[in-house]
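RETRY 2/3 - previous attempt timed out on the joint model. Re-submitting the same 620-residue input unchanged.
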Amino acid sequence: MRTFSLTILTVITATLLLTACASKNNNGPAKAVEDYLKALVAKDADRLSTLSCKDWEDDALLELDSFQAVTTRLDGMACEQTGTDGNTALVLCKGKLIASYNNEDQELDLSVRTYQVVQEGGDWLVCGTR
Amino acid sequence: MGLIQTGASILTSLLIGALTRFAQTTRVYLLLAFSIFAIYWFQPAVPLRSFDFWLPSITLALVVLTWFIISGRDTWHSSQNLIALIMIIGLTAIIDLSRYFLPEPFFTTAAPPRFILYFFFIIILTIFISLINWLFRHFFWILSAVITLLILILIILKTPALSLQTSIFIRTLTNRSVENASFTDLRWLGFSYIAFRLIHVLRDKSRSPQFALYGSERDKQAGRLPELALSEFATYVVFFPSLAAGPIDRAERFAQDLRKDFFLTQDETLLVGQRLAIGLFKKFVIADTLASIALNNLLATQVRATGWMWIIVYAYAFQIYFDFSGYTDIAIGMAHLVGIKLPENFAAPYLKPNLTQFWNSWHMTLTQWFRSYFFNPFNRWMRGFKNIPLWTMIFVGQVSTMLLIGLWHGITLNFVVWGLWHGLGLFIQNRWSDFIRARYPNLGQNTRVHSALQIGGILLTFHFVALGWVFFALSEPSLSWQVFRKLFGM
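RETRY 2/3 succeeded.
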């Protein structure tokens, strides 16, 4: 058991050093919104759930349901943090979400809404729009 | 496992097999390393944040815990075991740390949790394993407690109501929406198989002479487990080809293959290639094509005509066979490429003339597991009661075993009915065979009569099994009853 504990200690120390050397995490608010939109067009309910805060989870799944009958894709999507409101980061995206039905495209401009993103337990989560 | 994961696993097996010819130790470490990555990579997405990381991590924790219990204290400090332990902790740490250095999740479906959480997980795990081992030194019942823990986890995962409550509990703890909780939230890759492998070694350990927790001398002799290194044991439990859907191998047999030097001849390579091609064709072409017309909840309500209903029931019977046996072919083929001869799981089950033979050739490793760890000990126990009639013992033994096999698939009413269907079927077939054999001992001697009986038996058995799938494939007994009514024009 002593060897086991020593082994764990060694590995943990090594990984802590690795963490320190690792590049800063890139899971910022803008990345969180980009991942959210990617999950939305992929109709990945599990991923969408994990990228939404508690209060937004229902709305996120509802939004996903509204796209169930159409094929969706993103065109030129790029998000950027534009500011903060208290603990909430505000993110604006460029590009379009294209919903196709019967070869007919409907373009939804991503820049018409600002995403509210909050940090929970170290992760940035989409928590509403304005 | 999807096509990409299957393809990558086949290529990895080829690579490991080619790189480690006659290099037994390197092969074990490489197999362990890829198997560790595989349990994270194959784990399906779950809506509970970071659980695509935590579930495989708990699997590995259970593997390590079990190994400490079954292995001798004098082997803990060997360099081989130390390397394996460093590999397990180190590789899982790398997977967790990938959150910081990969732009997109690669090993898991979503970003792994923060490292500090993993750090606490390891600390808690160390304390837990130390405590269990300390207790185990003083109380042998700890071994039974770990078996109970594994069965308890299985029961929670297999019971929709308990799974839902667990999901609600986790969601409450992690500040998630409770309204969206579902019993499908805890999709734990391969846990049914992993738990059965762990129970097998723990149960065999409990039968070994130094414990003598249970029964007869025969048990103790049969249950002697060889000493397994951590690398061998962990590779056995999470071996990537058989991770998701078996077969359930035995630890001592698996270890024998691992310890052997191996070299695939040209003929063997060709045979493995054939097996893999057949498996891929069965699973990704035949089964996936049949899936669109195979029985499911939606088709059960939509299809009205008797003829079509029979077609979708037949389609399901063949779809489940080709899917499962195709997967098994792929698993056996991949394992063969790295020198492991996994046991067969299927032997033309739909061509068997009676239900007993069917169950000796369908998901064979699961039925063997239940035979070894439930049916045989249970029957031996019943034989202790001198006043129980033979037919009662056969009835209780067969029905309870099949019921448990049903419950292993899921603790729902439909799986209970499916288990009872087969249990009663086996009992009736057993009694009927005895009755016929006693009345007409020369019945099968005429070639024509024998052939007619064989063909009749195959058709009858296939239809009995196919009708049983109506309970297996659907979620509600009322829905199954509707299908039966349509099948028989009622």
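The radius of gyration of chain A is 19 Å. Closing ticket.
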